[in-house]
Design brief:
This protein has 495 residues and is mostly helical. 87% of the residues lie in helices and 0% in strands. The protein has 17 helices and no strands. Helix 8 packs across helix 9 (224-255) and helix 13 packs across helix 14.
Length: 495
């Protein structure tokens, strides 16, 4: 097996592991979303979305981005087999997170009346936000445990923690929604984060660490670089969350809570269901890229492999989704959510460009280039906010889909230019021909959706889907030797 093939297999191995986890999580989300859609409808989904978004915003302000910056420090120490340094870094992280989690919960409790007024236009949800402060506290603790597992490359334990946390959370929350309907929203959010915390804590405790005595002063002093990068990442996340929050508030004011529920349903499809590729890959990709962050040739290879696999995997998914969009939306939610078909159809085209820009964007984080990272975060999110507001104002939900599509094309182009001049990053020969053909498949499928004759439309869609699948399989097989790769996976499972 060549070194290049081994590298591609590492990408696919992590993707298959966490892809399987994400598929299971999607099934859980599908059941949960279906239950919410049927039992509490778009209004209930809108309320839940605003509560979770507000929690996310406060979390982004107070967590200092430690859940991501710690991954970089832990993975670097782990790569060099520095056991003492790894232990020290993890102990520093744990001490800092207890502090940030406490502050986050306190801020949410104190600000709860204003958060309710800002999100819902009244103070009726003050008590809800006070209770959700507990979920925020547990979320920060859980995220720190996930960072430890990710940085240590404990991928199987990370997968198990995700699976079990989501599954047990589902078993408890579905009956709650059945019996208490909208009143179950807050308890369900708290229970979901509690399950996540319990299982991530259990698996992270299995990592053997050197016992360390650490004061608060030492934790802050030694965690300075982690805090500095984390603060920039946190600021970026806060900006992203704030922009998403403002968009939801704008939609709520212009179109009502029902429209917020529809928007969030579309957003879930794009970022959770279609975005399975990104979340599956990111778990292993970031630590791997961080470990070679000072060697530009290795960065080029890592990003090339990641982007190529992402594009080849997501292109057929986009084509198949466009083919069955109305059916999928009915399956995931209910017929009340069919107005989001046009929004999601436009938005999903942007996911192909996101697959590439997502792969490139991690270079800036892995480099620890906090100044550039925050500048790009402000710039890109300002563009996204402007486009989304204009898109919704002029075109409603479909306008939002168009704005997402245009935004991701700009995001992709801008990151290519920025990383080239900043780090001399560029893709190796052969990438753009594959990316261009995958784009042609996706755009063709999208244009075919406008054909009014059903038989002709589905025949043409079927042809594009088949060609796209064969093309992706051909190139993946060249890189991986799929038959041998799959056989290896089954051998490991049997072993």
């Amino acid at each position: 097996m060549s070194k290049e093939q081994s590298s591609y297999r590492q990408v696919m191995r992590a993707t298959s592991l966490f892809g399987g986890v994400q598929v299971f999580n999607i099934l859980i989300s599908l059941i949960r979303s279906k239950v919410i859609a049927i039992l509490i409808g778009p209004t209930g989904m809108g309320i839940a979305s605003l509560l979770v978004s507000t929690m996310g915003l406060v979390n982004g302000i107070t967590n200092l981005g430690l859940d991501r910056s710690a991954v970089k420090d832990i993975s670097l120490s782990n790569k060099n087999d520095e056991v003492d340094k790894v232990s020290r870094t993890i102990h520093v992280l744990k001490r800092l997170v207890w502090f940030t989690a406490t502050i986050g919960a306190f801020v949410m409790i104190v600000a709860s009346p204003w958060l309710s007024e800002f999100a819902f236009g009244n103070r009726d949800y003050t008590l809800s936000f006070i209770w959700i402060s507990l979920a925020l506290f547990l979320k920060q603790l859980a995220d720190s445990q996930l960072a430890i597992l990710q940085g240590m490359r404990k991928l199987k334990d990370l997968a198990k923690a995700n699976l079990l946390g989501n599954f047990i959370g589902l078993l408890i929350t579905v009956p709650l929604y059945y019996y208490f309907r909208i009143d179950a929203i807050v308890p369900a959010i708290i229970i979901a984060t509690l399950m996540s915390f319990l299982f991530t804590f259990y698996y992270s405790r299995r990592i053997e660490l050197v016992t360390e005595k650490l004061s608060n002063k030492e934790a802050v002093s030694e965690g300075k670089s982690m805090i500095q990068l984390g603060f920039m990442l946190s600021l970026s996340s806060m900006i992203t969350l704030f922009v998403a929050y403002i968009i939801q508030i704008y939609i709520s004011q212009q179109g009502g809570i029902d429209e917020v529920g529809l928007y969030n349903a579309g957003f879930v499809i794009l970022n959770s269901y279609v975005g399975i590729i990104f979340s599956a890959m990111a778990t292993d990709y970031f630590p791997r890229l961080a470990a070679v962050s000072e060697e530009i040739k290795k960065i080029r290879s890592a990003v090339f492999e990641q982007a190529l696999i992402a594009v080849l995997l997501i292109a057929p998914i986009i084509v198949l989704f466009l083919m069955f969009a109305p059916f999928i939306i009915r399956l995931l939610f209910s017929k009340e959510f069919l107005p989001i078909v046009s929004m999601v159809s436009w938005g999903i085209l942007g996911m192909l460009f996101k697959a590439v820009s997502w792969s490139i964007g991690y270079v800036i984080i892995a480099k620890g280039d906090s100044n550039l990272f925050i500048k790009t975060a402000i710039g890109f999110n300002s563009i996204l906010l402007l486009f989304n507001v204009l898109g919704y104002y002029y075109g409603g939900l479909e306008g939002l889909g168009i704005s997402f599509f245009i935004y991701y094309m700009i995001h992709y182009t801008a990151l290519r230019i920025i990383t080239y001049y900043r780090y001399k990053f560029y893709f190796k020969k052969g990438f753009y021909s594959i990316f261009t053909l995958c784009t042609v498949f996706c755009v063709s499928a999208f244009l075919i959706t406008f054909i009014s004759e059903p038989v002709l439309k589905y025949i043409l869609m079927g042809i594009v889907a088949l060609v796209s699948l064969v093309y992706s399989y051909y190139h993946l097989d060249k890189k991986l030797d799929i038959k041998d790769f799959v056989g290896g996976l089954f051998k490991r499972k049997k072993g």
